[in-house]
Amino acid sequence: xxxxxDQLALLEDGNESDDDGEEKDAESEMxxxxxxxxxxxETPKTKPISGDTEMTTEEExxxxxxxxxxxxxxxxxxxxxxxxxxxxxFATLDEDPYITLPSAAKDEEDTYEVKPTDNLICVAKxxxxxxxxxxHLWNEAEEDFYVHHxxxxxxxxxxxxxxxxxxxxxxEGSQRVPGNYLAVGHMSPQIEIWDLDIINSSEPxxxxxxxxxxxxxxxxxxKKGHSDAVMCMSWSRQNxxxxxxxxxxxxxxxxxxxxxxxxxxxxxxxxxxxxxxxxLAESTTLLxxxxxxxxxxxxxxxxxxxxxxxxxxxxxxxxxxxSPFSFVAGTSEGRAVCVDIRQTKPLFTIAAHDSExxxxxxxxxxxxxxxxxxxxKTVKAWKVTxxxxxxxxxxxxxxxxxxxTIALCPDYGTMLAIGGLQGGLxxxxxxxxxxxxxxxxxxxxxx
Length: 447
Prior knowledge:
By secondary structure, the chain is mainly beta. Helix content is 11%, strand content 38%.
């Protein structure tokens, strides 16, 4: 470096001759090149491990066998690639020893499963212009109560009726298998039957009635159906292919579910038909209640009938479980009237509520238990004898504003489902009431 600096200094001073300058320039250039080039070093050779044979780097670190796994997974497969080196995947989650929690799919499957001990409660729900059916699941032993699934409707529902008859189209040679179905009567003169065992169903299995708008035409036998809103329905448990429906057109239609057509038209009333109930034992005997303040007992084979008049519109009817010859009717005047069909006058009349009696229910498990509900927001339980009835329990449901309907659980005799204008579905176990337990001699829990 010092020599180069000296040479450069001489060149700048101009004291050298031209020949000497050319030689010194060449030497300076070579010196600069030597400074700029990196030092050339030889790759050290790997010392042999033993003997006289030298080992390369690839051989020393076994690079050819780097991707081989000596401990191959017995039940899994190794994955290689960016971000996956050494990861193991399995064909199913059950094979993976590190996953011990149940899968989300298994949890969802268990949620939708309906057990033999479950009860389903169907509720017609209205939110603004949206109409739907909510299917609630209740299990007394496991204390479950939640919305299992829902069904979206494009019409305004007025009445519901459960049935087990499969009214859908059948393949040739196939047999109809009992199932879990719901008939929905609409403000439009149609009845839709939905399969409750299908989740996220988009359409009913069958629709009864072809009219899409109410009209003044009187219903006829056939597929046309009602000419006005379907107010009530009752399914025959003896003749399972028969469904009775009452309409705002003042008529009752008897539907053959096998052909989806009306076989009979009954015109026993002069106003809207509000309630229907098939007899519990006589398969052709139908009880009806109407806004014309009458109840009729109709023999559907002969169309012979017997009629009783009341002091108000008949809101609901139900056969009693204490006698095959008596029924109870709730009226718009707040009375519950018990009638023996062999007599012309009522057995007794109860001043049950301050407003119309909108629902009545008789228990199949507890003879003599009558339950009523009303627009006055109260539910009352009565102990009925052959000639009188006494109130044994009362409860107010203020959040519901006005109560529309009640139903007793077919498997658990004291559990009551209540539907109203607001507040959603309500449940009340009558056995939690001390006066009720005393009246029906029900022992308290733990005694």
